[in-house]
Amino acid sequence: MSASTGIEIERKYDVEDGAALPDLVGATAAVAAVEDEGVRELVTVYLDTADLALARRGVVLRRRTGGPDAGWHVKTSGDGRGRVEHRLPLDDAAAAADAELGAPPAELLDPLRGLVRGRPVEAIATLAVQRRALILRDADGRALAEVVDDHVTATPRRGEPSSWREWEVELAPGSDDDALLDAVEQRLLAVGAAVSGSVAKVARALGAAVPAAREGASAALKPKAGLDRFATDAVGALVSRLVALDESVRRGQEDAVHQLRTTARRLRSVLGAVEPAYEAQAVDALQNGLRELGRSLSAARDAEVRRERLTAAVADEPEGPAVEHLLRLAADHEETAREAAVAALDGEEYFALLDALEALTPLEGVRHPRASKALRERMRREHRRVRRAAIRFDEAPGPASSGEALHDARKAAKRLRYVIEAARALPGFGGTGLARRAEAVQDALGEHLDAVAAAAAIVEAVPLAQRLEPAGLFSLGRAHAQEERRAADALDAGLLALWELFDREP
């Protein structure tokens, strides 16, 4: 049985032992009845690495027995609206309360390899919960939300046992009724409940044992902030995004490879800009590792773009063996490249890179320069690289050298953009117009390269397509001509954007 995935939207409340749940009928006009499902006895075992790598990133891996949701669960952060939950039911033997724990299913654990990084997972806490569940229903009997009253006894692997009581309100699957959550909350607060500061029961059970993830400080930066403070924020945020996107790539989510590769490039650029805040050799090693990561993802990203472009290019063409062969070839290339990319994410070098990024801290005992000054100098340096590349293109003696100059110009424009966008956290830094022009160069020249690659892929498909369906070559020919036109138009736009960026003073 495969895992199910859903969005969990819930709120938690701390409550004293003597408190009684209020009447929730009529909390909103939609709540017509409350169904008491009685008391359930739940036993949940939470798993993590010895250094609590999952808990540090707010990820929950657990096995629950008892209740309708008995099974293996993984909870990860969502898009801010709720948490993503993946569930895999237990078989009858494993569902018994006294069943042996066993190993987590690979289907749930494999997407977390970027967090676990080859280390074993083991039980870190066991929670016994006596749960009373109430279902809020509308006039037609549809479930709107579940309200639970939990008496929890937690036994962590290390530390002292603890117990507490809490209430939870969780919307029914597919619902996003904030008004209902707000109305129920008002009734709970009125009888003495308090909004809980804990995201998950296991976090409360472990308490101070869970080290905080280094995601940068939450307070706004000041105009005169030091480079060390800026670096902590900027690098920490990008490392957190890199780790989160690792899971998305492993789950095969749309555009995840592109986002991971882009984040690695942003991180390289930001590290270069804030290098004086760190030990230089450490930054060099991290930039080299991020460069290799980008290379390992490039084939998968290119294949993804090529498949999307080819699909669009033949969308209006008649169906037939030639078109089918082109799209099948593109899909096969994409799948092979994606498998290679995921395999690269399982290498020891990559795991060591993630460890080193998470451990990176600014130098102590030195006077750090002002962040705005260091970033402006980096911005000017990247702009000079754009200018040099533009001049080399203008003076190039042939297609090979001009193509290399364009590639260098695009890379420099991206670095320039990434530095400016990171520096926006500094009040009054500016540079928005320059970043916009750099993005125009990046987009247009990227479109040119993608169109050239798509045209080449069509040519690659021609020999077999000709044998399958000679008449289908007209479809491929039209698609090829379309991509060549797009490549030429994008090159013109890219050169115009490049010279506009060239003329802009940073």
Automatic annotation (TrEMBL):
InterPro entries noted in UniProt: CHAD_dom, CHAD_dom_sf, CYTH-like_dom_sf, CYTH_domain
SUPFAM superfamilies, alphabetized: CYTH-like phosphatases
Residues annotated as domain CHAD: 224-506
UniProt domain CYTH: residue ranges: 6-212
Superkingdom to which the source organism belongs: Bacteria
Protein name, as recorded: CHAD domain-containing protein
Origin species: Arenivirga flava
Taxonomic classification: Bacteria, Bacillati, Actinomycetota, Actinomycetes, Micrococcales
